[in-house]
């Protein structure tokens, strides 16, 4: 469409005039810097919108607020491979007062975005495989789910994830120690794995996903502090990330000296550990979990493809980590991964489906 900008503008204007409610608008083939017609911003009747492979128009001079809201009825928005500035994301959030579901995926450009989550009706946000500098939940009183996967900065520094006003946040993940700098109120989890203030936590989170490179010493050292920020987690999903070479091993003594972790000791009823490779740091974590989790009822261990020759081999490895007679208190299910090597973290549609109580389970195999 790069050769026909006027025709594209007329098409978009025609859709606006017809008061379309659901729209998928994808620029194929590229160029990926094709400017999205600004006429779309007048589509006040839209309720669902999917945009892919466009450069979003500059919104800095457009009116904001009240009757000037660009998308007053928009409830679901997905941006895929979009070239969009932080200010334009702010515009979309503030000018979509009915927005409940936001998805950002495959935004890989040199400049990371700063995503500020504001919305009185916002219930679910998903950010996947995108260049981001920070994700800040500023004021989202209805936010229930925050999905993160594969987010990176351009220069390899921490991605700041700050949880502000989100009293209904029930599901969060996959957080990555070593990649995400987690801030909750005045608490900051730093590189050493400690916090400046752990009195402020997120007690409403019941389902937590963590992506941990157990072969990276500093990532594992941050794990206890991450877990302490969510004292009431009932379901814990762990995805074990592969590393080309290990930078140190942390044994059971590390976890014992880390001290009690409230969520593990008294609240976690279900644990799903995916992409288990059988390494010593993974084994130490699982052994600590099995020894100290007093209310754990269900454990699922999924062996990584290529790490084990058979399911019996995975079973034998896990049996060395569990206390004697422990199986009478907890049901343990062991399998081998049948999906892609490294595992899959998300399915956009499952995350938006609130009839699925735990969307992370949707990807377990």
From TrEMBL:
Gene3D superfamilies: Ribonuclease Inhibitor (3.80.10.10). It comes from the Eukaryota. Transmembrane segments: none annotated. Coiled coil: none annotated. It holds the Pfam family LRR_At5g56370. Residues 8-238 form the F-box/LRR-repeat protein 15/At3g58940/PEG3-like LRR domain. This is Uncharacterized protein. It comes from Eragrostis curvula (weeping love grass).
């Amino acid at each position: 469409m790069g050769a026909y900008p006027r025709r594209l503008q007329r098409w978009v204007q025609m859709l606006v005039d017809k008061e379309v409610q659901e729209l998928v608008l994808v620029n194929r083939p590229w160029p990926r810097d094709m400017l999205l017609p600004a006429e779309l911003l007048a589509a006040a009747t839209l309720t669902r919108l999917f945009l892919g492979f466009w450069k979003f128009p500059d919104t800095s001079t457009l009116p904001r607020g009240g009757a000037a809201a660009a998308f007053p009825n928009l409830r679901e928005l997905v941006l895929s491979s979009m070239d969009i500035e932080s200010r334009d994301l702010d515009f979309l959030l503030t000018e979509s007062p009915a927005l409940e579901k936001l998805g950002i995926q495959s935004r890989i450009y040199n400049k990371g975005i700063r995503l500020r989550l504001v919305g009185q009706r916002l219930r679910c946000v998903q950010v996947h495989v995108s260049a981001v500098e920070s994700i800040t939940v500023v004021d989202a009183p209805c936010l229930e789910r925050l999905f993160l996967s594969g987010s990176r900065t351009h220069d390899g520094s921490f991605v700041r994830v700050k949880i502000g006003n989100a009293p209904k946040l029930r599901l969060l993940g996959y957080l990555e120690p070593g990649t995400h700098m987690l801030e909750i109120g005045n608490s900051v989890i730093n590189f050493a794995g400690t916090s400046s203030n752990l009195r402020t936590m997120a007690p409403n989170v019941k389902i937590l996903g963590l992506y941990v490179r157990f072969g990276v010493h500093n990532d594992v050292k941050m794990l206890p502090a991450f877990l302490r920020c969510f004292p009431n987690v009932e379901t814990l999903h762990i995805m074990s990330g592969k590393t080309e070479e290990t930078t140190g091993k942390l044994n059971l003594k590390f976890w014992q000296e880390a001290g009690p972790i409230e969520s593990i000791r008294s609240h976690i009823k279900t644990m799903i550990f995916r992409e288990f490779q059988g390494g010593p740091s993974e084994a130490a974590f699982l052994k600590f979990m099995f020894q100290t989790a007093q209310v754990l009822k269900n454990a699922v261990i999924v062996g990584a493809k290529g790490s084990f020759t058979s399911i019996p081999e995975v079973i034998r490895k896990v049996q060395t980590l569990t206390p004697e007679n422990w199986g009478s208190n907890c049901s343990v299910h062991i399998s081998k991964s049948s999906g892609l090597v490294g595992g899959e973290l998300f399915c956009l549609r499952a995350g938006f489906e609130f009839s699925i109580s735990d969307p992370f389970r949707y990807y377990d195999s």
